Every structure is written in C-alpha cells, then in structure tokens.
Input
Amino acid sequence: MTDSLCGNLTWDSIMLVKAWKDPNVNNLITAGAAAMIPVGALMVPLLLLWTGWWRPLFRDWLASVDHKKIGVLYIALAVVMLFRGVVEGTLMRLHHATALHGGVLSPDHFNQLFTTHGTTMIFFVAMPLITGLMNVVIPLQLGARDVAYPRLNQIGFWLTASGGFLITISLLIGQFATGGWSAYPAYTGSIFSPGVGVDYWLLSVGLSGIGSTLSGVNFAVTLYKLRAPGMTFMRMPLFLWTSLCVSILLVLIMPPLTVACITLGLDRYLGFHFYTNDLGGNLMNFINLFWMFGHPEVYILALPAYGVMSEVASTFSAKRLYGYPSIVVATMCIAVLSFLVWLHHFFTMGQSALVNAVFGIATLIIAIPTGMKVYDWLATLWRGRIRFTTPMIYLCGFLVLFVIGGLTGIILANPTIDFQVHNSLFLVAHFHNVIIPGVVFGMLAGLHYWFPKVFGFRLLESWGRTTAWLWIVGFSVTFFPLYVAGLMGMRRRAVDYADPAIQPYMIVAAIGSLILCLAFLALLGTILRSILLRKQLAVPLGDPWDARTLEWATPCPPPEYNFAVLPEVTARDAFWEAKENGTAYAPVEKYEDIHLPPPTYYGLWIGAFASVLGFAVVWHIGWLSLLGLLGSIAVPIAYALLPYREIILPAAEVQKQDEAWRCAARETDGVTRDEEAHATNRGLAKPDELEIEFAAAER
Amino acid sequence: MNSPPKLHPGLNLGPAHGDDHEAAENSIFGFWVFMMSDLVTFGMFFALYATALHATAGGPGPKDLFDLSSVAWQTGFLLVSSLTSGLALLHVKTHHHRSGAAIGPMLFWLLATVALGGLFLWREIGDFQAMAAQGALPTRSNWLSSLWALVGLHGLHVSIGMLWALVIALGVLLRGVDQRWKLTLLRWGVFWHFLDIVWIAIFSFVYLGGLR
Ligand code: HEM
Ligand SMILES: [Cu+2]
Output
C-alpha cells in the first residue's frame, strides 16, 4: 500500500542505501555514480556562495531572457549530460569486451544503461545542443534583437532542464526504465515493468518534449516574422533554412511523442487499455506514434548540423556556398520526406510486403537530396581559400564518415536486408555512424565556430584540432567493428554473447570507447584552457573568421540587443557584401531607443514546479503532485496579472556603445587569413591576395 | 517605406487600434502555430480512436452508451458559446480603440461564454457518470480507453479555456483593456473557436458515426 506522505518512496529506494545493504558490483557502480549527485548538490552551492558567483549566476543568467544566454544554458546542460552518456556508453563497451558467456554487469543493470544512455543522448544531449545553437544563432543571423517570445524561450529551457533533472535523480532515487529509449509496450506496461523506471522515462521525456514544442513555435515565428528588412527567404543563410525546417518539424512531430507518453501513462497509472495485451489493447499504435515522432526527430538533429557545415564550408574556404538554391530545396525535401518513412523502424513487425516496399523506397529517396548536399559542400571547398581550422576538420570527418553512415542506411532501407540485420549491432553501428559524425561533429564544429561570437574569445586551435581528431579516430575504432559483429549475428541490447569469434571486435570497440572518453576530456580541456588564455584569444571587433553572414556584423560578444540599428539586407551573404563595399563599419546616422524584455524568474518557477510535479507523480505522492500541478498553473496566472514593464535603453547610450565599436574597427588594421589562429587576430579581417584572386575567379 | 498591411488569420483589431493592431500580428500568428501543434495532438487521439472502433473486447459499444439528446445539448451550448466569445471580441474591436470605453458588455459576453462552457461540462460529466454507472469505464476496453481520452482531452481544453477567460476578466478589471489583454483576448478567441471545431469533429465522427 502506498503511504500518503511519501507515496512509494522508501529508504531502500535510495541507491546509496541499497548498495550499503547489498554491496555487489552492479549496485556499487550505480552507487558510485549516484553519489556524485548529493556531492554535487552540496559542492556547487557551497562553491557559488564562497566565490560569490551565485549573484551573477542568478541575475545575469537564470533571470535573463537574452536568447544568447539561454542558448548557452542549453549547451551547458547538454555538455553535463554528455558526460553521463559517454560514461555509460563506455561502460557498456567495456562490459562487452569481457561479456563472452556473462561479464560483469547484470542483465537488469545493462538494460538500464542502454535505456538511460539512449534517452540521455537523444533528449538531453542532442536536443539541447541543437536548440541551444539555434537559440544563439537564429536572431543574430536574421538581423533580429531576440526571438519572437523571449519569455517562452526561457520556459522551454526550464522544462527541458526539469526533464534532465528527473533522469538524473533517477540514478540516486529509484531506478530508470529498462525498455530502451523507445520504451515499447507491453514490456513497459505496468504488468512487466511495475517499478518507477518507466514513469521516470515518461515524465522526463514528456516534460522536455513540451519544452521542445514551445521552442519550435518560437523559432518558427521568429524566422517567419522577425527577418531584418530585405532578408527575403532566398537570402537567408543556410543555417536559418535548416532551422526553419527543424522548427516546422518540432511543431508537428512533438505531439505524437506527447500523446504516446500520455497514453502509456494512462495505461500505467489508471489502468487504461491502449497498449496492453488484453481487452483490445494495440501496442502497434504506440510503435507507430513513437516513430512518427522518432524518424523526423533524427532529421531535427541532423538538419542543423547540415546548416552548420554549410556555414563552415563557405566561411573557411572564403567562397559563396555552392548551389545554394539546390541545398535549400534539398533541405525542404528532406523535411517533407522525413514524415513518410517512419515505418522503416519496424519492417519486421508484420505489415504486408507491399507496405514495406513503399516505405523502403520512400527511405531510399531521402538519399538523393542528402547526396546532393554532399556534392554542394565539396564544390564549395573546390578552389577555395581553405584554412584547416577545427571546424574544417570536423567537416572533413563528417564528409567521409557521415557518407559511410548514410550508405549503411541505404542498406538497411531495403526490407529484405533489414530482416537479416534488424536489431543487431549492425543497426547500432549505423545510427551511431550518422549521429556522431553527423550531429555531434556538426554541433562541435558549430561550437568552435560561434564560441567567439558569444564569449568574445576564440577556442584554442591546437587543442581544438586534437579534440577533433580524437573524436574522428575514437568514433571509427569504436563503431566500425560493430558493423562486423552485427553481421556475425550479435544482437543489440544483449548483455552477453556466445560466439568467441565476436570477442576481438568487442575488445577493439572498448578501446575505441576509451579514445572517445579522451575526446570528451579534451573538449573540456579546450574550453578550460581557452578560458585561461582568453585575453590572448579575444576578438572584440567581432569577425575572427572573415565570415559572411550578419551575426559577424556585431562585436564579440554582441550587446544584449544584438544590433544597435537593424541591418538592411540587400544580398545573400549580407555582411560579406558590406565588407566588399566598405560599408561594414560605416558610421550610423540615427539611433533609436531600444525596448528590451525585463529579466524574470518565470522560467525558473515553471521548471521548479514541473520538476516537483514529475518527481511526485513518479513516486505516487498525491499531495506533492497536487502542489506541483497547482504551482505550474498558478505561475503563468500570476505573471499574467503582474505588471510588465519593458526596459528602455536610450538612444544616446546605444550610440555610445555602438560608436565605440565601429570606431575601433575603422581604426584597426585587420589580419589576413594567414594569421587567423594567431594572437594578432582581434576580430577584424583584411582580405589577402589569394582570397581576392579566388574571389575574382569565382565571378 | 511602404510596408504591407499587418494582418493575421482570424479577427483583426484593425488599424483603428494603432500599435495594438501592429503588435497583434506576431502574437496571434504564433498562437496559430501552437494551435496547429495542438491540432496534431487531437489528430493522434482521433487516430487512436479510429483504430479502436472494434476493440470493445466484449464490453459495451457506442449503441449501448451514446445519448444523442445530451450530446445535442452539449453541441448547442458550445456553438452558442462560440457566438458569445465572438461578441466579446467584437466589442473590444469596435469600442476599445479609444480609452474610456465601458468594459461591462465585454465582461458580460466573456462570462456568458464561461457559463455556457460550464453548462457544456455539466452535461458532459453527466454522460461520463452515466457511462460509469453502466460499467463503461476506460479500464473496460481499448475502445472505451480511447473514447474517454479523446472526449476527456476536449473537456480538459474547455476547462482550460474557461479558467483562461476568468483570468482575462480579472486582468481586465485590474488593468483595463490594454494592449496585453487585447492580444490575450484574441488568442483566447482563437483557442475557443478551435475547441468548437474539434467538438464538431467529435460530434460527427464519434457520436453520429458511432450510432450509424
Ligand atoms: C560517445 C560515445 C558513445 C558510445 C561509446 C556509445 C555506446 C553505445 C552502446 C554500447 C549502446 C548499446 C548498444 C546495444 O544495444 O547493444 C548504445 C546505444 C545507443 N546510443 Fe550510444 N554511444 C555513444 C554515443 C552516442 C550518441 C552521441 C548518441 C546520440 C546522440 C547515442 C545514442 C544511442 C541510442 C539512441 C542508443 C540506443 C539505446 C537503446 O537501445 O534504446 N550514443 N550506445
Ligand atoms: Cu528512421
């Protein structure tokens, strides 16, 4: 029976207590990881109090509605969660290296690992990375002062963060689901998974899903309505096109996921029969709903990466993007086609051969626009003024490895082949092969590329390049052996295997996963080292890469309002054109007052109540659920009734800040591309002879 | 510069409202986008319902449970409430472009809408109680689960719309019909009409279709 004060929560739910009473290997590993939560929960506030950083943290970051800061918060969340994801992936790989007929981890523990790993990586690493990057970049590239709804943006972040809180706390209190990131019933129904695990999955995925829907709405409106004067659709930088497609996808495909979560929740909590084995329940409905979300989701993750790669390719070869209209059309085609292929995730589940063939062909067709883009990127590099900076190394890794991943996807799109390798490690190799070289490389390239824009200083090239190579090598060593192991018959989600011939591949993969851990550490190292050297790396004048689009027409970091006067756009690469005409830093005639949304804790309150609600529902604590629910309703009402006053920045103040930057830019002698990675790069670019020659040849 | 006229789908305040009208475009457009997302949500519940039509698992089916006269009353209440919500908005449009306009009529129509929504919910809950009394609970079959979830989701939306209208009434009393509340009213109007459209679909597809 559930206790009314604490619901199903008991002392034994706490991992540390469980490990104390029953100290076996599995419990100790989990408890070790779980112990980091209370330690962190104690250390971080102490550190903040001791350094006095809590005040700026709250005032300048948590209360801020500035899209750049919210973007940074998203990315910070993603990096923290990436730590957990990488550790779990490595743990599984190390386990498999010794798992011939057994191994260290218990089946239940292994099941939890791949479930949390998959869920974390998709919903709390990849999603916050793309949302964070879009947040930072969209308004700047668009020539706008912020997103359309700054407060909604904050709420979206905190909903995602409360989902992240739930999946994190599940490590310490209770346990997570064991049904994989896709959580198929009937296994995840209350009969086969009675504990709290699936409930944690439902609530963390559900809450962050609502956050993503709101972000999608926000970005879509921003892109439709807040374009700078003259920024027609066909003048938008490619990253904005991919963002537009992603926003549309988010608006339309998050609902199936939300519905899947709600209905499975109704089954589990109230005894409904959507997906049960008895009384007419139909578990195929869940699988369809999940993949109606799940397939477009992979394009939500991949498209922004394509966008970043397009910007990177053209900036670091100092050339216009080759075949811009064709990439735009290809992006749109991919977005539309992504709705029509979801069934390829379950070819084996009993449809007719005809249905399978239709979905197989639809899937194959996606290869055409994607292939087109690859050629466009290659052609952009052709005879460009190429610099092998960190983002370019990621681009090269992407071009080679992502294409291989795409090709194995084409293999899987054929239903007859899929029947052989479905649910084998071949599939695991395939999707990591598109996700890591595609999404992760894309996001890391974007991180390097736009980092100076947000923080005012570059990331160290030496460390950055090493990191990029570690990711490339680590990925290849970890995942290529899995293709072979899959073809040899090794199942995915299997705790052990019986064929000794597989073991060598597992050992190689384990070594690879250690290289990936190094890559993650090197990423942190790059950031930390660069923070220490930030004076040397500063690029205050705003344009360290001799770039082409509007975000570089601002200082680094840009003021809260981004643009002192909204730019007038007359060409596709607006900033490049301004530089060619010599008007990039020209004095501005007239400044106007700027209205800014006031800082607020709206999002934080919503996040807090949503977290309470989620936690209480997981543990069936009635009164606390009610409190969380009422709070979540009361906060918007309270903020609606409170007065709302915009901050007005007087024109004179704007003029002072803006003129200081423009004067400095006019008086500084820029650097050529040879010195891009040197301390002399202050963010002002000077065209060099090669660049001019190539540009002339391009015309 | 010659900018295109500001317009958005649905009832526009019109140029007489000056800045308020200008500001409406982005706000209302975004809300429509959000409603499209909500529409997909309902679409998914409709799809679940459609696949459950024969999954009564030996339990009661539409012919045993549906009471068309009650559903007709509900439809009536909701359709009239759409009219009253429209009248509230029209009053804002035609009177509140200048300050000092009386808010009484607007409040009256707003609260009338809430009252009609309440009547709708009262009949709907009555239906659910009647079903429960016959053992037709959502735990009985897949079909009943889908029915309760779909109709219940609509009922939840109606409740949210009513709560929202009450908050607007309070806000207007506290702060007057300023730009913020005008835009809120416009969004609420879109929401309320949306509920009506979804109900028409439920009425035709679930109830009329079920008794066919
Ligand atoms: C960083 C290095 C990574 C390693 C070592 C790693 C390793 C693994 C392993 C061992 C599995 C379980 C395979 C099995 O079922 O037998 C797995 C599953 C999975 N991984 Fe990764 N992974 C990594 C990165 C990523 C990234 C970046 C993502 C996505 C953003 C990702 C998403 C997934 C998903 C969705 C699953 C499926 C989980 C399930 O079966 O439900 N992984 N990974
Ligand atoms: Cu797919």
Remarks:
- The mean pLDDT of chain B is 94.
- The domain at 19-43+68-210 of chain B is CATH 1.20.120.80 (Four Helix Bundle (Hemerythrin (Met), subunit A)).
- The radius of gyration of chain B is 20 Å.
- Helices of chain B lie at 19-51, 62-65, 68-95, 104-133, 142-175, 179-210.
